[in-house]
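Human: We require from you a protein record containing the residue sequence and its fold in token form, and nothing else.

Assistant:
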Amino acid sequence: MKALNRDLGVTSMAEMLTGAVPGEEVLLCARNGQPVTYVADRYGFRNPDAVHDAPVNLLLLGDSFTEGICLPEGEDIASQIRVKEPAVVNTGSRGAGPLFELAVLRRWGPKLRPAQSVVFFFEGNDWQNLDGELSLGFLTDALDPAKPVGPVESAANSTEAVERVLSGWWSEQRQSLEGYLSRRSWQRNFLALQQSALVMGIHYPKATADKPEYLQILRAAKATVDQWDGALTLVYVPQVDRFVGLLPSATVYDELRNRVRDAAGQAGLDFVDMVPVIAAQSPPRSVYAADGHFNALGARLAADAVLAQMGGEASEPRLRPHELLDRGGGNGASLTGDFFAALKQDQCRNAANAELARDIRVVLGVDFGKTGVWCNRTGGLLKRRGHHPARPAPRCPEIHQ
């Protein structure tokens, strides 16, 4: 959504798009050769539309983990929460970071006025995403309580403008990641070295730089929910890398974990830590799909953590046959056995056929401290077009991670 707003020329939070085209089918990924989709609700999010006809008890904010990337209806976090708490609205969106989520909360929170709001923080890239978000003027508006939240219709965010941008993305020449790297041996060797380090458990993340803006964001979020006496909780979601390898390496990830926990405490948020929950699984990586997102089991653990925070009961375990396969990696590729199919960068992915745009900046911008780059069908960001049933993306649209 950030890339779409940027390419639309959106200049303010009031006119920015926060969700997909209402009522349209949204493509999440291809799974076992079949598209995984959902129909966006009246505001462009992944919910049954009828949820907006009654009071809302719980609001979810986050990125592709929250949206439920590559998880069919019933398996994503929100769907599993609805087993016990039907009045939940999910605003998760692939590629979203802390500042984007604040903008979503400021726009929709006062309208929905949920008793509980939960923001998911993903260890793998949310800290890095914030750097790019701070360079976007329409997102920094969210830090100013005097700025109007919208939505305001304009020429920039019109349906016609959106269609033009999406058509432009589709028309760009595609180039597969495998093909790109096959002609550039040093990138191949570098990626192989990174993957070997991950398997050995010596794949360490970058040092965590101080970002005072993050505390500012959490305080602004807390002030927002205080308007209707709501509660705000931060759920910390670890990346699979901390649980993979022959040598123990989890502690090197805790610098960021501690920073986020401290910021949440200073801002007055409740903090739910998924690290010990996932570490208790045997093995921990069994809750992740091949691309590093949660599989159905991981989503269920997250749903149970949210329900427990609300004082509710855990959802009933209901693993289907394909979910048992997902416990070993799932979704068509093993974590280490098919590296190129497992490359991930949060919002861009196709589980069966990862592809890269011609834009070389995407490759050069890969953060090798993460698993890699995923490219999903860009059109799926807003809707699934009938004449392109399951095509991978011509472009990985989000530059600002």
Notes: Residues 2-173+207-333 form a domain with the Rossmann fold fold (CATH 3.40.50.1110). Confidence is low (pLDDT under 50) at residues 317-401. The chain is about 35% helix and 10% strand.
